[in-house]
């Protein structure tokens, strides 16, 4: 991938992106789910350790096993953490600033037949006082 960034500063997301060779995304399997990840999206690069981390998150979440929890996944990237919890909760709401990551998260939910996940693009550093009105009160917050 060739990512063109004309601005001054340290950023990995540029204004233009070109696929020089191969596909424009990669596919990974994590905790029994398949994820497609584009170049400008965040994904844990060490998938073995991500398996361990996501299991730890699941264990620490203290899920009630009745499918009633609302999960708020802040800075969700491609949706991997929220989607791995989705099978045990009522609904997952993911928020992320990178538009391509949100697109990937939505695609990953469909790819894995997960219908109880909503992903929203927005800058969490600039949220207003009405932020909590966009979803039910969460039982679990991941950040």
Automatic annotation (TrEMBL):
Binding site for S-adenosyl-L-methionine: 44, 75, 96
Any single Pfam family the record assigns to this protein: Methyltransf_31
Keyword tags: Methyltransferase, S-adenosyl-L-methionine, Transferase
GO terms assigned for molecular function: RNA methyltransferase activity
InterPro entries reported for this sequence: Methyltranfer_dom, SAM-dependent_MTases_sf, U5_MeTrfase_fam
Residue ranges annotated for the Methyltransferase domain, each copy included: 69-128
GO biological process: methylation; RNA processing
Family, as annotated: Belongs to the class I-like SAM-binding methyltransferase superfamily. RNA M5U methyltransferase family.
Record-given protein name: Methyltransferase domain-containing protein
């Amino acid at each position: 991938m060739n990512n063109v960034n004309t601005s001054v500063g340290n950023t990995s997301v540029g204004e233009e992106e070109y696929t020089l060779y191969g596909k424009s995304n990669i596919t990974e399997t994590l905790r029994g789910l398949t994820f497609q990840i584009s170049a400008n999206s965040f994904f844990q690069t060490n998938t073995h350790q991500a398996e361990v981390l996501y299991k730890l998150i699941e264990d620490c979440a203290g899920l009630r096993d009745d499918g009633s929890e609302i999960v708020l996944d802040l800075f969700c990237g491609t949706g991997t953490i929220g989607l791995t919890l989705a099978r045990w909760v009522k609904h997952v709401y993911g928020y992320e600033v990178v538009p391509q990551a949100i697109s990937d998260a939505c695609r990953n939910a469909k790819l894995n037949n997960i219908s109880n996940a909503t992903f929203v693009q927005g800058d969490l550093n600039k949220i207003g006082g009405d932020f909590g009105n966009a979803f039910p009160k969460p039982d679990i917050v991941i950040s």
